[in-house]
Amino acid sequence: MNRMLLLLIAIVLLAFTPEEKTDSIPQNLVYVLNIQREIGSTSWIHTQQAFEEANKLKPVCILIHMNTYGGEVVYADSIRTKILNSLIPVHVFIDNNAASAGALISIACDSIYMRPGANIGAATVVNQTGEQMPDKYQSYMRATIRSTAEAHGADTIVVGNDTIVKWVRDPRIAEAMVDDRISIPNVTDSGKVVTFTAREAIKFGFCEGEANSINEVIQKLHIKNPTIVTYEPSFYDGLKGFLTNSFFHGILILVILGGLYFELQTPGIGFPLIAAIIAAVLYFAPLYLDGLAANWEIIIFIIGVGLVAVEIFVIPGFGIAGFSGIALVILGLTLSLVNNVVFDFSNVRFEDLLTAFLTVLLGFIGAFFGGIYLTRKFFADSSFSRVSLLATQDIDKGYVGVDISINTMIGQTGHAATILRPGGKVNINSELYDAIAESGYIDKGVEIEVTGFSGGQLVVGKRI
After folding, report:
1. Contact 55, 88 (CB under 8 A)
2. Distance (Å, whole) CA 401 – CA 404
3. Structure confidence by residue, pLDDT tens digits, 120-170
4. Judging by DSSP bridges, how do beta strands 423-428 and 413-416 pair with one another?
5. pLDDT of residue 68
6. pTM
7. How far apart are CA 10 and CA 337, in angstroms?
8. May I ask the CATH class of domain 401-462?
9. Where are the domains of the chain?
């Protein structure tokens, strides 16, 4: 009886116990991230967003659909670090090109698949004109791509008394994708940077196989009945990527400093100041939202601008306040570009700090010389000249900028309050006036007579 009662109670409890919700996420989910543009701030933002979403969905793998000719090393390095630290396996399908920064990102992935006719390599660091950068930049890239290849491990084989290391991806070959001085027998002759076709990449361990599509890559990964989810960037992600682009940062710095320069040339609130404020907001806002620009860094920038204004409008000349203001402006703009925590720069690479400083410095220099050039250009030989005064206003035509009432003092007498050599002060009717001796010099206390008037000064001679 007791057993029957217990059985009934168990049935009732099971009937009224809420059914546990099953995970609605498909078991064989493949998350696809498209990187089919120049590697830059936008690619980095898309990668961060995609990996964050993938971590929530918990797919069996992340599959990067790659087609790029390269881009900025700093963002490529951030993406490759994200891949190496990912707990979710990351694979890449090179649809056509994985050059330069794209090669670095691809080598970081767990496996590489390439379309027949695709290429990978040519990772030499170049500038915007395509010229090879100095060796210190190449050295950093060599070390980065070498360590990326080493991250995939190696097998050791003992042959007699020798231990042979067989790398999954040979770091020396990866390094040869950067440095044309490296010679590897049967791979490359010295003087040629390594670039592999799909079959060459398979031969030397830099590609797991050929594929013609994403679906074919998934089949080769032995994922059955996959559900494919593709990352779709939002408009805000694209906008933030554009605003944090290094080139656009340089333009904003030019507008900020150039606007301040023009505004200081024409006191009062006008278009240059408004343009500088808008540029400053566009510069700091995305960096602040991303956690790069802190409150104190923005305050440093504002204090710097204030010191420059004080130096120009309040303190004669250009001294400590002016130079301090310029230094604080540069410091505020620079620190906003690096991921430091207050004054802790332990996680900030020197290359990143140097890049940020050079970006700001070049913008500052460009704004200075650009401001001088545009001032002459706009106000001398363009339609802007219509708003400036170009005519000469001669005194003999009645154009004067001084009080001419003292012109009536001709003939009055007094004495020299100071030595006139030839300029100085004279005392006439117990009032001091600026004066200039009509010839020679006049000692202090000598009686004088006003003989003329010139440029706001009395012309005096010795009283006879």
Report:
1. yes
2. 9
3. 999 888 876 677 888 877 888 999 999 999 999 887 665 566 666 678 899
4. antiparallel
5. 94
6. 0.60
7. 63
8. mainly beta
9. 29-235, 244-377, 401-462
